[in-house]
Amino acid sequence: MTRTILPRSSRFPILPWRKFSSLTGPRSAARAISTATRDPRTKMRTWELDEQHLSKIRVNPTRLIDELHYTCQWGTGQRWGKADSETGMSRLALSDADKLARDWFVDTTKSLGCKISVDAMGNTFAIRPGREDGPPTCAGSHLDTQPSGGRYDGILGILAGVEMLKVLSENRVETAFPVGVVNWTNEEGARFPISMVSSGVWAGEIPLDRAHGLKEVGGGSHTMKSELERIGYLGSLPASYEAMPLAAHFELHIEQGPILETEKQKIGIVKGVQAYRWYTVEVDGQEAHTGTTPFNSRADALLAAARMICTSHTAAADHGALASTGILTLSPGSVNTIPGKVTFSLDIRAPTDHILDKLEEHLKSDFDFIVSTESTHGLGLAVSWQTDSVSPAIHFHDDCISTVRASANAILGDDKLSREMVSGAGHDSVYASRRCPTSMIFVPSRNGISHNPKEYTSPEDCAIGADVLLQSVLRYDRLRFARKV
Amino acid sequence: MTRTILPRSSRFPILPWRKFSSLTGPRSAARAISTATRDPRTKMRTWELDEQHLSKIRVNPTRLIDELHYTCQWGTGQRWGKADSETGMSRLALSDADKLARDWFVDTTKSLGCKISVDAMGNTFAIRPGREDGPPTCAGSHLDTQPSGGRYDGILGILAGVEMLKVLSENRVETAFPVGVVNWTNEEGARFPISMVSSGVWAGEIPLDRAHGLKEVGGGSHTMKSELERIGYLGSLPASYEAMPLAAHFELHIEQGPILETEKQKIGIVKGVQAYRWYTVEVDGQEAHTGTTPFNSRADALLAAARMICTSHTAAADHGALASTGILTLSPGSVNTIPGKVTFSLDIRAPTDHILDKLEEHLKSDFDFIVSTESTHGLGLAVSWQTDSVSPAIHFHDDCISTVRASANAILGDDKLSREMVSGAGHDSVYASRRCPTSMIFVPSRNGISHNPKEYTSPEDCAIGADVLLQSVLRYDRLRFARKV
Lengths: 485, 485
What we know:
The structure is a homodimer. By secondary structure, the first copy, chain A, is of the alpha/beta class. Chain A contains 15 helices and 20 strands. In chain A, 54% of the residues are buried. Chains A, B: GO terms for molecular function: hydrolase activity, acting on carbon-nitrogen (but not peptide) bonds, in linear amidines.
């Protein structure tokens, strides 16, 4: 994903949610709510619950997981095990399967008393009214999957949001402000080739026209707009944080990595998204015959590239960062010809931009050293870098992070069972975080596998994550109430 | 090239040349020649020349290089400099351009008194009679080139042979036995995809039907046989060392490497062809997200492959061998996915089979170590080897090597200007050596470059090489005479 990054100071220029999260305010406003006429159908009000009662509001684990697998009837993918639910998913954005999953989302949330808004990108907001009007505190994620994806990436976040609405409904919980669930369109970028494109449009960072004009990959002629129209999800609401402000955004997601599983922990309290940079590195050498050219007369572009790849890992480890090469091409590509040119991708990631600055500097120097020492007899090797993508580190909002931490402690009862993390991958929460306070909740991924039919998170872990999501939304609602008073 | 290798003991089963190169024999036979009626048109007889006179028989350097460039009008390739001769060559075997070059070869050698024989593979033998009948001592190489080749690889060997015939003719030299020049078909394997295929058929190591049935690369429908017919070079002579025995084969060729140039030497006395083995190495790891997978949870097939490539070079250098990787493919090939599978070619070469045995053993152990140390958390990496080609070391015939050495000393006057070498590449001399005594003569290649339009050997170096070729053929003829007596 390539995108324009706003300077930090201008990220929240005129934000509707600010009036609700202001740290100071007249206490009289709170009093106005707490003494308002009570709706006799309401069983509990978030702002009145003590810690003990609040912590007891939990999801129904069986219903959550049954409903998750129920919705996987739309876009069922590759089978990997014998049980009914042991298949992957292949639910590309705006496909017929995606339309059916969306229809289920709309029907279910409507039946739970939500108002549905669909914007011009098909982002679908199911909002449950609170005691007061205002932007909703939302759980959000996505129902689309990779073509060879699993049942949890994105789907779990939406299903946990819907389960939250069911819990609020059956317990007749009244929130101070609206709460809701948002299904963002085409998060995967697997059908229309920009990831997180629709939260990006909502955040004002991707132009609507560009997004609408995206053609499906693989040479098809459908665009996002034509497919939104075809399946009936081209909404009349502008796709914009101004037209549909959010008070906060919480996203439950599988970790997609092995850390929680390895550390035997249950919840990742996601403080942000690591910085990453993508480069294309080109190494130019000299084609020569493998049989007739002694080592000291070679300028072997592949040997140099191999040394660079090894070095990038060592250096990244030294800096507490990651380095990866996923693409490598060479020419001319003949068994008995030494490659004259190699091009490879380099993906480096770290929790802070500063670490990446240092690592980039380190690698540029190391790669220069490699081409200088490989170079002999005037044949010469050369290396050049092209920067393809720069994504600065994202720091989620402290209020949301604290809310997730308090919720995890309330559910797990032991802070050793959770850990603070940064996300290695991008999510809709990246764009959401530019326009409203945001945090994420991670649950373990078996073997760290995702984007794969075998992606798996146990029902118990799904329920723990959904409990933390529910608690986070309720606690943030209480925070909004408290700060208003 | 993949081919069946005969066991060493059966290489020369019933060789026609043996009767001429026998080390013992009645002295009366020699006397029979030396006292035979002299042809009044003959100016000199090889067997009567003393060393001083023999060494003075030299090529005409200007005529050699002018004729070489003249023949490059057929199949002229890519221009790289301003002079008329500063282009490469693109003369694919059995093309229209190749036919014109062949016609020139036949017409020129006929006019020099040669008898022409074309065999079923289009191999063309131009034989100049000697005092006695018998298999000819031949200079041989090829007129076909790579699609993006140069003016010297193969061409120089044929042109130097033709120049030899001119020198013999204008000096009215009589040889004891026939001498000649052979143009082997499709040495490059660039149009019909087996290198040295026609010398291979002649040697009885590639079946005629397989060679005739070879289709041109790039999806064309022409076969070697149909193209031989079309251009009129499908000869009636069987393509066989039995139908057309050679007494010896000398091949002048550019080095295609940088050693002579680097060492400031003029002639390579080629003792043989190094052994080589080609493998396909497959590394299997685990696809994973580059952003969410810590180093200690990865099974990165590309990182392991990069370490193997680095190690193969270090180990080969330690063994006095070569190692090269010219092809590398990986999957799935996405910037942010760690490759789960990498396949790469490995080409190892050494002067002896024993060194390759040791190197192969060393690398298998090293690669196993690399996958075991990269492997963590039970994800595992695995490596597997497939052997694609085994070509044992070729040892040329001591008589021919000694003849080339004596010729180089006669021409250069200083044995520091020549060196014994093994060829890194395959040549028609490899197959010739299975059926008759053989050696090769190398001349410097500028920057070691070949299979490239810029391939270049100076006119002076071409002439030195042609002189050594001429001397070698004459000296071998004297050897045959001396041994017969």
